[in-house]
Amino acid sequence: MQIGLVGLQYSGKTTLFNTIAGIENPEMSMGKEEATIEVVKVPDKRLDILTEMFNPKKTVHATIEIFDTPGLKMSDNGKVKITTQFMNNVKNNDALFYVVRQFSDGSVAHPMNTVNPARDIEFLETEFLFYDLAFLESRIVKLKKEIMKTKDEKMKRELPIIEKCYAHVEDEKPLRTLGLSDDELKILSGYQLLTLKPLLIGVNFDENSIDDVESTIAEIRDSLLNKDETIVPFFGKIEYELSSMDEEDRITFMEDYGIKESALSKILGSAYDKLGLQSFFTVGEDENRAWTIKKNYTAQDSAGVIHTDFYNKFIRAEVVHYDDYITHGSFSKCKEAGVWRLEGKQYIVKDGDILNIRHS
Ligand SMILES: Nc1nc2c(ncn2[C@@H]2O[C@H](COP(=O)(O)OP(=O)(O)O)[C@@H](O)[C@H]2O)c(=O)[nH]1
Ligand SMILES: [Mg+2]
Q1: Domain assignments of the chain as residue spans, ordered by start
Q2: From ligand 1's centre to the CA of 98, what distance in Å?
Q3: CATH topology (fold) of 2-273
Q4: CB of 139 within 8 A of CB of 193?
Q5: Domain 296-359 carries which CATH code?
Q6: Which of 164, 207, 299, 329 is the most buried (most CB within 10 A)?
Q7: Ligand 1 atom having least distance to the Cα of 240
Q8: Total-model pTM
């Protein structure tokens, strides 16, 4: 899974990126045009506990890739140009994480001169809508031309979908709110439509405004066109400073500041939620591992995440839920208690299932 941090310059993207990637002494590369990518372990207490119980040779966390993209720059005419470079950076991201600035700091310029997170969110959204609109418009022209010439059936099926998307975006609505079917999404999957990507909005707060977070978020939400957005507050600077401490100190300081949950944990939690993701585990002497899957994945789909051979040669899955394993303490006790099961291909895997795939 890839999450791209995007936003205006100086909103705190790189600071946040360094915090979650655990980069302590970043080499500042101002104005760099390429994205920086870091693979981040997804913390999971359950996996830690399983490791204590099994003591395997190695433990493998699920990972996500975080992209720090260069800030979108305003030109003199007050417009942001979405460059090919930017698109190359974000096109494969599974979700976008807007970073907007709530902190005020006279020594850090704001590209629009004043601090106003709701305005910045709408600004990014509008730019991305324009980008999608232009793409959809040119696609419609091209499809119509080709259909006249070749009567291509596939293109004939695509056209009404693109037209529906166009009408939605023209109405200033992001494509992720259109409720497209899986088949429609498949047709669109080759295109780089920005407003189709699941969105999380990060608001970067001052440590002095911790008490006002909830009311400020409510205000921001209230002034957005789309009130259902997922908004994640975080404290860029202070969380970066805390990230170099050992865990115990960090927790104490976070409590002192009134920060309940780290930026990473909030971002991951919301991203899993938004993307409909969950984890299952495999355990054993050699390796304990957490795997990330979609919520509707069957036992066979999940086997395929481990290995394509496991998908093709799937026979059955041995399943125990993590909670049951913890209650009973061993697979044999789980069998006695009747919570160890053999499930077929179609079984829908649940968050926290421990699986062992039987295959031919
Ligand atoms: N006061 C304050 N400064 C911050 C905060 N977050 C980032 N900054 C500063 O703002 C400047 C721009 O941050 P940076 O992360 O590089 O922004 P980017 O352009 O979005 O990547 C840097 O000097 C940061 O130290 C914050 O929460 N509070
Ligand atoms: Mg940056």
Answers
A1: 2-273, 296-359
A2: 14
A3: Rossmann fold (3.40.50)
A4: no
A5: 3.10.20.30
A6: 299
A7: 6
A8: 0.88
